Amino acid sequence: MGQFVRATAAEDIPEGTMKTFELKHTRFVIAHTAEGFFAVADECSHDGGPIGEGNVLGNEVRCPRHGARFDLKTGAVTAPPAVAPIDSYRVKVENGELFVWLD
């Protein structure tokens, strides 16, 4: 059964940036957009590239290797060469702290 796990203080991830984490044997990134905080897997479904080394573009993240893009809310592919989505995780902000739901 999953639970919310503390990742970091919200102030540690300024809007338009993201940060990589590994908690409970799960690698993911938390991105901060104008719409809030979102978490996705730190592995591109195209070739396993590190999503956390890419760029936040609005509500998307771009993989640094070949430019595949993913929706930060859902993990859905928004631009090739990737065709499969990446995992997304629920995020909550509580008392200025970020928590991510992990199994």
Structure description:
The chain has a 4-stranded antiparallel beta sheet, with no helix packed on it. With 103 residues, the protein is mostly beta strands. The chain has no helices and 11 strands. Helix content is 0%, strand content 50%. The protein has one domain: Rieske Iron-sulfur Protein, CATH 2.102.10.
Task: Write the SSE topology.
Blueprint: E1 3-9, E2 18-23, E3 26-33, E4 36-41, E5 55-57, E6 60-62, E7 69-71, E8 77-79, E9 88-89, E10 91-94, E11 97-102
Antiparallel strand pairs: 1-11, 2-3, 3-4, 4-9, 5-6, 6-7, 7-8, 10-11
In short:
The protein is mainly β and 103 residues long. It is built from no helices and 11 strands.
Task: List the main descriptive attributes of the protein structure presented here.
103 residues, mainly beta, Rieske Iron-sulfur Protein, 4-stranded antiparallel β-sheet, 11 strands, 0% helix, Rieske_2Fe-2S
The average pLDDT is 97
The DSSP helix count reads: 0
Helix content: under 10%
For the record, the CATH architecture stands as: 3-layer Sandwich
Low-confidence stretches: none
So what's the overall shape?
globular
Rg, nearest Å: 13 Å
The CATH class designation is: Mainly Beta
In whole angstroms, how far apart are the ends?
A: 6 Å
Question: What is the beta-strand fraction?
Answer: over 45%
Instruction: Briefly note the CATH topology name.
Output: Rieske Iron-sulfur Protein
Quaternary structure: single chain
Total domains: 1
Structural class by helix and strand composition? mainly beta
Largest sheet: 4 strands, antiparallel
Number of β-strand runs: 11
Secondary-structure element order, N to C: EEEEEEEEEEE
The CATH homology group name: Rieske [2Fe-2S] iron-sulphur domain
Spatial arrangement of strands, main beta sheet = 2-3-4-9
